[in-house]
Each structure stands twice: as C-alpha cells, then as structure tokens.
Amino acid sequence: MSVAVADMLVSLASEPPAGLLPARQQMAFSLGWHIVLACFGVAFPAMIFVVHLRGVVKSDADALALAKRWAKVSAVLFAIGAVSGTVLSFEMGLLWPGLMGRFGDVLGFPFALEGLSFFIEAIFLGLYLYGWGRLPPRLHLAMLVPMAAAGVVGTYCVVSVNAWMNMPTGFRIVDGEVTDVQPWRVLFNSGAFLQFLHMWVAAFMVVGFVVAAVYAAGMLRGRRNRHHRVGFTVPFVFASVAALAQPVVGHLLGMRLGETQPGKLAAFELATSTEKPAPLRIGGLLVDGEPRWFLEIPAWGSFIARGSFDKPVQGLDTLPPVDRPPVNITHVAFQSMVGIGMLLAFAVIVFWLLRARRTDLLRRKAFLWFAVLAGPLAVVCMESGWIATEVGRQPWTVWEVLRTEDAAGNNPDLWWVFGGVVVVYAGMTVGAVLVLRSMARRWRAGQEDLPSPYSPDAPAPAERVAE
Amino acid sequence: MNTADLVAAALFAGVVAYGLFGGADFGSGFYDLTAGDARKGAAIRTLIDRSIGPVWEANHVWLIFVLVMWWTAFPGTFAAAMQTLFIPFLLALAGIVLRGASFAFRKYAETLSQAQLFGALFATSSVITPFFLGTVAGAVASGRVPGDGVGDRLTSWTGPVSLIGGAIAVGTCAFLAGVFLTADAQRAGEAALAQTLRVRTLIVGLVTGAVVLLALVPIREDAPTLSDGLSGRAAPLVAVSAAAETATLVLLLRRRYAVARVTAVVAVAAVLLGWGVAQYPWILVDQVTIDEAAGARATLTALLVAVVLAVVLVVPPLAYLYRFTQTEPSSTEEA
User: Fold this and answer.
1) Mean pLDDT score, A218-240
2) How many Cβ contacts (< 8 angstroms) between chains A and B?
3) Could you tell me which of A115, A196, A189, A110 has the C-alpha nearest to residue A156?
4) Which one-letter DSSP state was computed for residue B18?
5) Residue A451: its pLDDT value, please?
6) Which of B166, B200, B167 is nearest to B181 (CA)?
7) Which residue among A376, B229, B240, B333 sits deepest, i.e. has the most Cβ atoms within 10 Å of its Cβ?
8) Contact, A226 vs A330, CB < 8 A?
9) Where does B18-85 have alpha helices with state H?
10) Phi, psi of A173 (to 5 degrees)
11) What is the mean pLDDT of the segment spanning A281-303?
12) pLDDT number for residue A17
C-alpha cells in the first residue's frame, strides 16, 4: 500500500504541474479572442478618421453618416476589447505565476507604457463618442488622432514583450537568480520593431477586410448605393496597402529565425533533419516522425528562410526531444498564414489592376463573394500567425530561459475556470453579434440615433413599426 | 523615501484613483439595480448611461495601471497574491467583464427584454465586483497573503476584515456614485430624479458610515497591524474622512450637490489613503515589506519615468474629459 502511494508520488512529481495544460488553453483562447478586438482598437480609428475627415472637409453626407455609425460600432467593440484585455492582465498572475514572479520586473516596463497608451485611447474614445454636437467639428475630428497614435505605441509595447520572449535580453541569470535587469533594453530589444510592424500591419488587414466584407455583403443583397461603395472602398484601401506590405515584413521577420529559433524554423519547414540546401515543403504533415503528403520545391526552403541557396535549414533532430515544439500545429498554422496572406495580396493586386483598366470588380458577384470571405480569412490568417509563433516557441515561454511548465502554477481547478471562461466569452460573442446586427437592421430601417429602448426618448413599440 | 517607496506611492495613487473613479462607476450599478421596473427606472438608467458612458473605460484603466505597476515593481508579491487570492480575483474579473460588456450592449439593445437582460447583468455585476476587490484588500491588510508559496485559497479572503472590506467597498462605491448621479440629475434639470437619488444616497451614506464605525472593533481583533496604523499614523486621515463624510451628508440634506461631490471624493480618498498609510511599510501586511518585495532598481527607476509620462500625458486630457462631462449639459445627441 505505502509502496503504491510512494510510486504515485514519484510519478506525480515528474509530471508537469496541474495548471499547465488548462493555463495554455485558456491563454490561447482568451488571447485569440481579444486580439481581433485589439485590431479594431489599433486600426479602426484611422479608418473612421478618413470618412469623418471627408465628411467634414468635403461636406460628404454619406461619409459623415459612415463615421457616425462606425463610431457607434466601435463603442461596442472597444468595450468588449477593454474588458477582454483586462482578462489578460489578470491571467498573467492567475495562470503564469512562474513567469511573473520571476520575470515581472524584467518584462513589466513595456506593459506600463502600454497601459499609458490604453489610457490615452480610452480618454479620447470617450471624448470622440460623446463629442458629436458638443465639440467644434474639427476639434472633435482631431480626437481620433491620439487614438490612432496610442494604437501604434500600445502595439509596439505589447509586441516588444512577445519579441523579448522570443529573443530574451536585458538581464542575466547568476546562480539561478535574475540580475542586472535593464528595462530599456527589453523595451527596445532588437526583435521588437519588425514584430511590431508585422502585427500593426496585420491589424489593418483584419479590420480593413472585415469592414469591407460587411459592405460587400450589403452589395450582394442589392444595396448598391454610394454609402456602400464608400463603406467598402475606404477599409479596402487600408487592407490593400497592408496586404501588400505584409509579405515583405513577414519575410524579413522569418529570415532571422534560422539564427534565433532554429526549432521553430524546422517546424515551419517540416525539416526533420538538417538539409543544405533545404527544399520548400508546401502542405504535408509529420506522421510517425516522417514528413508526408507535401509538395517539394528543391533548394527554395533555404533561399526563402535563410536568404541563400547554400545555407542549411537546421533539422529537428539536432534538438533533444524535450526541446522540440509540436511540429504539426506549428507547420500547418504557419503555412495557413502564408497561404492566406499570399491569396489576399494577390486578390488586391488583381482588383486594383483591373480597376486601373476601368473594370470594376464590385459589379461581379463572384468578387463580392470573395470580398465577404476575405474578412474571416484575414482573421484566420492572423490567428494562424500567432499560433505558429507561440506554439513554435514551445516548450519555452521565454526562449531557452523559462520552460512553460515552470511558468505555470499548480492550481488543480483551472479546467473549471477555463470552462467558465469559454461560457462567458461565448455569451459575449453572441451578445455582440446580436447587438451589432440589430444596430445594422435599425440603420437600414432609417433610424440613425438608436435611443435605448428604456430611454424617455425611445419611440413606443407601435411608433417604431410605423417608422 | 527610497525609489521603492516612491513607486509604491505611485501604485497606491492608482489604487486611490481606481477606488474613486472606478468606484463611482461600479456604484452606479446599485441605483440601476434598485431603480424599479422598466418604466419607473427609465430616468435613472438613462442618467447612468449619460453619466458614466463617456468615462467608464478611462476610469477602468486605473486598474490596469495598478496591476502593471504591481507586477513590474513587486513581482513576487503579485504572483503570491494572485495565486492565494485566486478566487476573489477571478470573481472580480468575471464581474468586470460582464459589467463592461453588458453596459455597452444595453445601450444599443433593440428590445426592452434584451435591455433588461443586459441591464440586470450590468447592475448585479457592478455591485458584486467591488465586494470581491474589497475582500482582496482585506486579505492583504489582515496579513493572510504569504510572500512566497500559496496561502489557503478559501480562508485567506473569508476572514472578518475581508468581509468588512468587501462591504465597505460596495457601500463607498454606491455612496460616491449616488452623490455624482444626484448632482448630474440636478444639472440636467431633473429635480424629481435628483430628489429620489438624494434620499437613496443619504441612506447609503448613513449605512456605510455605520458599517465603518462598527468595523473598527473586528479590525482591532483580526488585523492588529492595520489597526495600530489606523489609530496611529493614519489617524488624521481617518478623522478627515469622518468629517468629510459628515459634511457630505449635511450638504446632501441642504441640496448643495456640486460641493457635496468634492467632500464625497475627499471622504473616500482619505479612507483609501488611510489604509495605505496604516499598512506602510508592508506591501503584504506582516509578511513582506515594500523594500523586500521591490524588483530590480533599474526597473523601478524606469517605472518612475512612466509615472512622470502619465502625469504629463494622461492627466491633462483626463481632466479635460471630466470637465467635459461634468460641466456640459447632458446632451441626448451622442454617438
């Protein structure tokens, strides 16, 4: 009996902490949910600015109406973005005590500056949303500028922490103790700028394609007025620029992986053993340790990943098994991101080339269908990118410094918490969709102001039908 | 005062600001909850929408500021508190999420039944959230959060001081919100509404004041370190708070709502400051001092830079936002 208990204790001691897997799932889920709204916080103010500016300067009534509606939409989206961002702040401590307790003073400073950006964004959001008719028109419009600027700074700061997790710097570990902490070097770590650019551009792709998709869907249903054309074109222009820039940024970012995180690169490239030159493998999965079902283009893997046909791509076999990332998830996520990104870039090139030759694809149903699909595709593209970089960094939370199992806590109840989080977020998603759809429906019915149903100004139910 | 003390002071200033501004937002949930059915409560609920709509997100950022300052400057104690007080933090977080989301959803809800669902969620979570944050404060102040390892996940925050802390948090939030809403109603020219709110605020103020007085005995038993501080170093602040609270009640009786806002803020700020001063130099009372908990010096210095930036960049527009909402007449035209 006692031997059995002792055996059990030994096996328990060697297992990862109880909090590891649920913490991972919950972090991925809540971050994956929040990042879509964070994109709106970063990119939407710039788009609202363009239509609002047009509305004020050129007295364009359609553009001004769009600005008013988008402002109302952002009131809903930014609210759930703010609260789901708060969840992440709590989760840093609730889920990752091993990371925060040991490295909080190393990685915390960029978060402090991100907090300031969030402050600016929230203050000017309040002024903008409630400034209609209360602030002079141009001053009111100017409230969007600090919001967009805060989006840039905030994105940089948050992403700099992620870049630090990929390429840790600004501290030393002496006898297991973290020492010689240099917060400014963490903030300005060499990986931060490109990674920031990648995310910032991604935010414009996501918001641009998603908002354009809404108006493309309207046109498909026969609503082909100027309101819809402007509503489609402005976000689509932002998305187009972003979609064209993104492959360049992403490529530059990927080029350093061979040096900084060979395990991640090997998983991206499905490289089980070191090859020189390495082929480019499109598609495929690792089955029993062997890559299968892929299309191989000789030597191009080396060229794309390392910038030369002669440089090797290090294989997974050079890493001890405990240091290898989950290969299939990383590989599939990475190739989904690249594939969708290329497809979107190609599509915007075709659209604008044809437009220059006076062929308007907005008259083609097939293109409108594609534009509707491009919204969710852009979201999938960005989510895949985050999955690829985060899963590809495993088993490390801080690359070669802190293993994820050491970052997690030992709370056995986390699965219940994760269940609760899923339920609350599902409810929030349903609530947001419900409210946004009903707003759109009322706008189409000719109501602009959308008074709350309990407000003294609200029309009685009978009158509302008459409208 | 060394660097760690300065950073702790800045962190605590964030706690005070969140208590005041976030607190007033949370407190409005109490009046929303007690406003009555859809028709009777319409005026109060519309007033709450207008009063906190423009500011709640900015007010909420104080919490983010506090969390970030905490984990950056005093990382070990942050991890310890988050693990030991996992349950109240989680429940407060759930409240924050439900309340923010349902507040936004309610405003744009199409039908009355949807608005009622979101409204009920908003109001109840607004009342519950300060309770759990109050239990966290009570747990820290009564020495129940160990500096390393994990304290008992249940009894750490269910002691007398935690429960009192929760009750006081709910009461002060409602009191602050009541004073502000009464003043807002008066300014909007809704005299009857102001009168209703005035009576409710007076009742909330009296009950909360009584709870605070009664709490002094269990605090002496359960949290001697805090109690010594409150009757010693922090005694002047406690006196200021009592005086300001009394003044607020008198001002409410005499319908001087604009001035009452100031005394109400002073009363709550003094209570919060009193707590901070009373537990100094502990960050986790009886367990870890500010100095022992402090992270890398270079990081503390960098944080002070961030604080200066905050004062320069954030405070002026924030002041403008409050002026904007507190001086302009309540307008119906908004985004």
Assistant:
1) 96
2) 272
3) A196
4) I
5) 84
6) B200
7) B229
8) no
9) 23-33, 38-52, 56-73, 75-84
10) -115, 115
11) 91
12) 85
- What CATH number has the domain bearing residue B166? 1.20.1630
- Best of A90, A91, A128, A433 to mutate (most B CBs within 10 Å, chain B): A90
* B54·A130 Cβ contact <8 A: yes
Say whether A94 and B89 touch across the interface (CB within 8 A): yes
What is the Cα–Cα distance from B58 to A125, expressed in whole angstroms? 9
Nearest residue of chain B to residue A97 (CA atoms): B79
Residue B42 falls inside a structural domain:
yes
Is the previous residue joined to A168 through a cis bond, with omega within 30 degrees of 0? no
Q: Which residues of B touch A127 (CB under 8 A)?
A: 54, 317, 320-321, 324
Bridge partner residues of A71 (DSSP): none
Determine the length of chain A.
467
Prediction ipTM score? 0.94
Cα distance between residue B206 and residue A113, in whole Å: 41
Q: B59, B86, B89, B300: best mutation site toward chain A, by most A Cβ within 10 Å?
A: B86
Give the residue from A454, A455, A463, A467 with the most B CB atoms within 10 Å of its CB, the best one to mutate.
A454
Task: Find out whether A316 and A275 touch, Cβ atoms under 8 Å.
Answer: no
The model's pTM is 0.94
Beta carbons within 10 angstroms of residue B241's beta carbon: 23
B51 CB neighbour count, 10 Å cutoff: 23
**Model confidence band, residue B334 (pLDDT cutoffs 50, 70, 90):** very low
DSSP labels for A330-376?
A: HHHHHHHHHHHHHHHHHHHHHHHHHHHTT--GGG-HHHHHHHHHHHH
CA atoms of B271 and B265, how far apart (whole Å): 10
Rounded to 5 degrees, φ, ψ at A60 are: -85, 105
The interface residues of chain B toward chain A in range 125-184, judged by CB-CB distance below 8 A, are 150, 153
| pLDDT of res. A1 | 43
Question: Per the structure block, which two tokens stand in for B297?
Answer: 């010096």
What is the rounded distance in angstroms from the CA atom of residue A458 to the CA atom of residue A170?
A: 57
Compare all CA atoms of chain A with the CA of B47 and give the residue at the minimum distance: A455
Interchain contact, B332 vs A457, CB within 8 Å:
yes
What would the two tokens of residue A50 be? 């363009």
Question: Is residue B333 in some structural domain?
Answer: no
Residue B310 resides in a domain? no
Rounded Cα–Cα distance for residues B335 and B49 (Å): 12
Nearest to A108 among B49, B71, B314 (CB): B71
Count of the separate structural domains present in chain B: 1
B267 CB-near residues (< 8 Å, 6+ apart): B240, B241, B242, B244, B245, B247, B248
Using the beta-carbon criterion (under 8 Å), do B317 and A105 form an inter-chain contact? no
Q: Are B103 and B125 in contact (CB under 8 A)?
A: no
Give tens-digit pLDDT for A140-151.
Answer: 999 999 999 999
Residues 6+ apart with CB under 8 A from B253: B202
Query: Chain A partners of B303 at a C-beta cutoff of 8 Å?
Result: 108-109, 112
Q: Which residues pair with B288 in a beta bridge?
A: B284
A85 and B310 within 8 Å at the Cβ level: the answer is no
Domain span at residue B285 reads 3-301
Residue B335 in any domain: the answer is no
